[in-house]
Every structure is written in C-alpha cells, then in structure tokens.
Design a protein that fits this description.
Elements (H helix, E strand, L loop, with lengths): L1 H25 L3 H18 L3 H16 L9 H16 L6 E3 L10 H18 L3 E7 L3 E6 L5 H15 L4 E5 L8 H9 L7 E7 L4 E6 L14 E5 L6 H11 L4 E4 L9 E5 L4 E6 L1 E4 L16 E2 L5 H36 L7 H13 L5 H14 L3 H14 L4 H13 L3 H18 L4 H16 L1
Length: about 475
C-alpha cells in the first residue's frame, strides 16, 4: 500500500514537471512579442482612420515593450488582452481589439461539407430570426420589439417589414436594444426610415481609404406604414454597441425618441479584422461616424440616455413612460380626427354642384390617410346620402371620390354607376358599370355575376 502511494506521488511529480517544461517551451519569446507589436503598429499606421493616433499608439506600445511591461504575459490570450488594453488606453477606441485565433483546423473543401456549412448558416439566421427576437403588443396598446442585431437587408428586410406591420396600429413603441451589438448600417437606415416621413440626414461614415464620405438619409419608401408621429422609446444598456448605438444616437439627435437605460458601450467606428500573425488578429476601424447635428459621434463615451435607470428597473420605467405617451397620443389623435371629420361634413353640408367635388375628394383623402375611413366607409357614406338623405348629387360626388381613391375596386365603380343612373346620366352610368365588370373579371371578384346583372339592367334601361 505504501509502495503504491509512493509510486503515484513520483508519477504525478514527473507529469507536473513535464507540463511545466512544455509550458516554458511554449512561452512567448521576446522576439515573438516584438514582431507582433511591429506588425500591429504597421497595420494601424496603414489603415486606422486616425493616422496621428495610430502613430501615438505605436510609440506607446514600443515604450511599454522596451520597459519590459509585456514580459509578464506568457500566452497569446493574455498577451492579446494586454495589447488591447494598451492600444485602447491611447486611442479610446472600443472597436479596436486584439484577439487570439481559434486553433487551426484543416479545411474540408468537399461539396458535402460546403453545403453542410451553408445549411448551418441558413439555420442560424432562422433561429436568430435576423435579430428580431420578439414583438408583442402590451396592455395599453404599447408595441414592444426586442431587437438583438441589425441584419443585412437582403435577408432581414422581409422580417423587419413584418414586425413593423404588427406595431403599426399601436399608440406607442418600445424598441429594446439592451442586448444589441450592432450590425448592418443599411438596416439601421431602413428601420430609422419607418419613423420619419420627411427626408432626414441620419449619419455619415468617413473612410480613410479614398478619403470618401458616405451619407445615410431616411428612405422615401419602406415595406410597411411609416410612423412619424408615434411616441418612440429606445432601451439602451452597456451592451448596446456599434450599429445599435447609431440607431439610438440618430433618434436622440433628431429628437425622435426618448432613450431609457444605461450609457451604451461606445463603439462608433466601422472597420475590419486583419491578421497580425498566425495566432493573433486585430479589428482596426478604417472609418468614423459623423453625426450631421453634433458633428461628432459616440466613440469612447457611449450614447447617454435622457432617462438613466438601473438595469433591473429599465423596462418598468420605459413601459410606464410609454403608457403615458400612448394615452396622450390617443387624445391628440382623437382631436385630429374630429377636425378632419368635421371639415369633411362641412363640405358635404355646404355642397354646391361641381364646385364642391374637389373639396369632398380632398376631405375623404384626408380621412383615408388618417385611417378614419376605408373603402367601405366611404361607400357607406355615399349610400347614406343616396338612400337616407335623398341627396343623389352629393352621393354621386362621394362615390366618384371613392373611384379615385380606390381605382382597383369593382364595387366602388358599381356604386358610382348606380348614383349616375339615379341622377339621369345613363351613358356615364353604363360606362362605369362596364368598368366595374372589367375590374371584377380581372380580380376574379366573387360578385362578378352581380355586377354583370347590373350592367345588363342599365343596358335595358337605355334601350327602353
């Protein structure tokens, strides 16, 4: 028993000494570190968006190396972390990070492996849902979107449009970017465009290479309904970074949203990864964001929310503010709709043949844009004046406006034709009944036979 114990101790000691020997053999040499710093400095001087800062960073790194600061770091992981801390102490650029490469794995270029990787990538995008994790309508008609990334437009745009449509009928919106690390500038631009109806200069990106500046403006059209007046709240945290910060900063500087939460991470400058050696790589910002209002960006300082909260209190506070804003929005909307509705009825009450037609069209168009009236509401109003008030001329003007606002509806042309017939304009009535049948056939309308019967009826009336 004693012999066995002694044997185990001896073997353990040998293995420990062997592992220490291997670790010492694999420890980073002074030459390795020096060459890494020289290569890193070269990449910064060649590509970093701020050449003067790159030079100052190089001088700082070489001074630290000559003083022996990096001697304490024995492996690539700790050395990379030390380099990151050193460069950021000079440039204060959160995007510039040095990292260790993953262990090399021989490439499998077989068709089977390539299709497997492609399918894996597609599945990851599906599971990730292009960053759109959750959307729901909370009590009080407040929309909530949990957005974890800004995907490329090709895959992400259909998802973005679908989620925006779900929130189009809410009275206030919360966009949660507290776990969003950024992504595509084009998707940032696209989502921002949902909340402006006028042309707005959101941001610019300057790139050192080519000395060029790319401007990002709101888009004229999106795949859903724009919501320029809807109260908007954005949740931020220290994990909100890069593109998510741009969205927040855009909305804040344009005074389009209220930011709630904690100061964001502070990464504003775009760039790319570059190899230092076979074990290390660096992300170097090759451009910088320039806000058209502040003429600067959030690099190193983050986006500071108007309403600061503790992390655990952020959602409750944001929801409370959104509920209040939604209530105010409903009250203002009610006042606005009342004015539009009363203006329309003023035009109807003061009807003058021919002269009032444009005023009625304008009034009904405003009702439609304000979502007060749809096609069937306008038709119902027309029949109200035709049947209940016995004012076929006014009804005719209403139905005429509906054909202009809804030119692809067979039903509105059929109704307009009916009013023309009741006002004695049989030829115009015939023309519009034909139009109704033509559209119904094209649209495979279920009421096409009814429209055909109405057409035959006017033909007989003209013949007799």
């Amino acid at each position: 028993m004693k012999f066995t114990t002694k044997l185990i101790i001896v073997i353990t000691t040998i293995l420990f000494n062997y592992q220490v020997s291997i670790a010492q053999d694999n420890a980073l040499t002074e030459e390795y570190k020096e060459q890494a710093i020289i290569k890193l400095s070269q990449l910064m001087n060649d590509f970093y968006v701020f050449p003067d800062v790159a030079k100052a960073t190089e001088e700082h790194l070489l001074r630290q190396f000559n003083e022996g600061y990096f001697n304490q770091f024995k492996d690539d992981e700790s050395f990379a972390a030390a380099l990151t801390e050193s460069v950021q102490s000079v440039n204060n650029d959160k995007h510039m990070r040095i990292r260790k490469n993953r262990p090399y794995v021989a490439l499998d270029n077989s068709p089977e492996r390539k299709i497997e990787e492609q399918i894996d990538q597609i599945n990851r995008s599906k599971w990730y849902n292009y960053g759109f994790v959750e959307v729901k309508v909370l009590k009080g008609n407040v929309g909530y979107l949990d957005l974890r990334g800004f995907a490329g437009l090709e895959g992400g745009k259909p998802i973005a449009d679908a989620y925006m449509k779900l929130m189009a009928n809410t009275d206030a919106i919360i966009i949660d970017l507290s776990k969003n690390g950024g992504g595509s500038p084009e998707m940032v631009q696209y989502l921002c465009s949902y909340f402006f109806d006028n042309k707005v200069h959101l941001n610019s990106l300057y790139y050192r290479e080519g000395d060029k500046t790319i401007e990002f403006w709101t888009l004229d059209e999106v795949g859903g309904t724009k919501m320029p007046d809807l109260p908007l709240f954005v949740i931020t945290s220290d994990r909100t970074f890069s593109g998510a910060e741009e969205f927040s900063y855009n909305m804040q500087t344009q005074k389009r949203a209220t930011l709630v939460g904690q100061t964001s991470g502070g990464g504003a400058n775009p760039g790319g990864t570059m190899g230092i050696n076979e074990n290390l790589y660096v992300f170097i910002p090759t451009g910088k964001a320039i806000n058209p209002i502040t003429k600067t960006n959030w690099e190193g300082v983050g986006v500071i929310p108007e309403i600061k909260t503790e992390l655990e209190d952020t959602f409750d506070k944001t929801y409370e503010l959104a509920m209040e804003a939604a209530k105010t929005y409903r009250e203002k909307t009610k006042e606005k709709l009342s004015i539009i509705y009363l203006s329309l009825h003023s035009s109807l009450d003061q009807y003058v043949p021919k002269k009032s037609e444009e005023a009625i069209l304008k009034g009904l168009k405003k009702c439609k844009e304000a979502k007060l009236f749809e096609e069937w509401n306008i038709n119902a109003l027309g029949y109200e004046y035709l049947m209940e008030h016995n004012k076929p001329k006014i009804a005719q003007s209403i139905f005429r406006a509906n054909t202009i606002l809804h030119p692809n509806s067979a039903n509105v042309f059929d109704s307009y034709a009916e009013s023309l017939m009741m006002n004695g304009d049989l030829e115009s009535s015939l023309k519009n009944y034909k139009k109704a049948v033509e559209i119904a056939i094209k649209n495979e309308d279920r009421d096409v036979e009814l429209f055909k019967k109405n057409l035959e009826k006017i033909k007989r009336k003209i013949k007799n």
